[in-house]
């Protein structure tokens, strides 16, 4: 269509903007993930965390007034064992009977891990740490080393790039 002013009207197609299906939602990037935990849409704080880490994060995030939801992570997929090849002749069968094939050692038990999320979908741990938005129970601001549990108390007076 032409208008007198020289502008043209362009019709754009309708974009299908339906939400993602399943338990995961579309993320801005890999640093800002969402999942449905226990039926509630949550921002993922950490995946595959061990029990001690979950206890630390839950205590810290609840101190900062976040509602924390923790669920068990699914176990990793096991690789199926390959069966021995079938014997093709009698001679090979007698030779294989004399040779014992040692069994593969059992894999160590997989530690129980958890997924930690908060119900505030705007939460992003990177932004919270470097934006100095979280406080530790002692009143200090949470630092990266404290978040990673490299130090017992956050030293917020020392810049992270100076501490070596």
What this model shows, in words?
- The structure is a single chain.
- This protein is of the alpha+beta class and 164 residues long.
- The protein has a domain at 22-73 and 111-164.
- The chain has 4 helices and 4 strands, in the order ββαβαβαα.
- The protein has helices at residues 51-63, 90-98, 125-130, 144-147; strands at 34-37, 40-49, 68-72, 114-118.
- The chain is extended, with a radius of gyration of 27 Å.
- The model is unreliable at 16-21 (pLDDT under 50).
Give a topology summary.
Layout lengths: L33 E4 L2 E10 L1 H13 L4 E5 L17 H9 L15 E5 L6 H6 L13 H4 L17
Antiparallel strand pairs: 1-2, 2-4, 3-4
Fill in the keyword field for this structure:
164 residues; alpha+beta; four-stranded antiparallel sheet; 20% helix; extended
Q: Can you describe this structure in just a few lines?
A:
The chain has four helices and four strands.
User: Strand order across the biggest sheet?
Assistant: 1-2-4-3
- The portion of residues assigned to helices is 10-25%
Q: What's the Cα radius of gyration?
A: 27 Å
Biggest sheet details? 4 strands, antiparallel
- The span between the termini is 66 Å
Number of E-type strands: 4
Percentage beta strand: 5-15%
Order of helices and strands: EEHEHEHH
User: Strand pairing plus helix content: what structural class?
Assistant: alpha+beta
Total of DSSP H or I helical runs spanning 4+ residues: 4
Mean pLDDT across residues: 77
- Uncertain runs with pLDDT below 50, 5 residues or more? 16-21
Please state the overall shape, judged from the principal axes of the Cα atoms. Answer: extended
